[in-house]
Amino acid sequence: MKTAVVTDSTAYIPKELREKWDIHMIPLSVIFDHETYREEIDIKAEEFYEEVKLRELPTTSMPPIGEFVELFEKLAKDYDSVISIHLSSGISGTYQGAVSAGEMVEGIDVYPFDSEISAMVQGFYALEAAELAEKGVEPGKIIERLNEVKESIRAYFIVDDLSHLQRGGRLSSAQALIGSLLQVKPLLHFEDKKIVPFEKVRTRKKAMNRVVEMLAEDANSGGEYRAVVIHANREEEAVEWKSELEAQFPNVEFLLSYFGPVIGTHLGEGAMGMGWYKK
Length: 279
Description:
By secondary structure, this protein is of the alpha/beta class. It has two domains: 3-28 and 63-151, 3-Layer(aba) Sandwich (Rossmann fold), CATH 3.40.50; 154-278, 2-Layer Sandwich (Hypothetical Protein Tm841, Chain: A,domain 3), CATH 3.30.1180. The protein has helices at residues 15-20, 45-54, 65-75, 94-104, 119-134, 139-152, 163-167, 173-182, 204-219, 235-248, 261-267, and strands spanning 3-8, 23-26, 29-32, 35-38, 59-61, 81-86, 109-114, 154-158, 185-191, 194-201, 225-231, 252-258, 272-278. A six-stranded mixed sheet has the order 10-9-8-13-11-12, sandwiched between helices. The chain has a four-stranded parallel sheet with strand order 2-1-6-7, sandwiched between helices. Helix 3 packs across helix 4 (94-104). The longest helix has 16 residues, at 119-134. The two termini are 25 Å apart.
């Protein structure tokens, strides 16, 4: 049985990894002044952060169901099944779009998977699925493994300005106001598929150190881990942090990724994140 792996653009899997593992990507979009740009295709992360300085904050949109149908029908020519992995259904309708499209397409079995998260931590699921698909593992077993990954996956992020999340409806006005008034750098995470505060920390450095503490709790308990450092237009800072972490945690494989246009719209420039799971 031949299984394809699909994810959406908010996984921000580096292009070379997508090509290496034959992961198919369906884009979400940002809309500036009625102009729609598909992320990773029409607009890259660096371009987006430049545009945001000059224009009003864009809105974001999920892929049209027709694009899912078109992709699944194309894959049906060469594959028996597809694992379609998407950002949390609590912040986007993308996963539901994959579900609906899967019911409309004939000739291929579609297995939609709600990552309940986003960014490259979502990408981890796609990489796991692609590695198993290449070995010929049947789709039901791949989904079992993804649910197993979900048990150990953890992700936290730090934003410089809560107003982006509040404006986009991803955080309540009260939570944003409290963060702004106290000048805290709240550590955020996904809980029940939504973005919520995890802890309030006074400074960015303390917030980053707190994330490292939590990684240490897991990594020092045994086993091998895969982790990612994610940044919103702060590559130099992210590279430096990754180097420090690699020296501190030899049993952890670290990747570097970024918050692209869609997630960057909600988190704002300067956001940092880290996620990991047990291999």
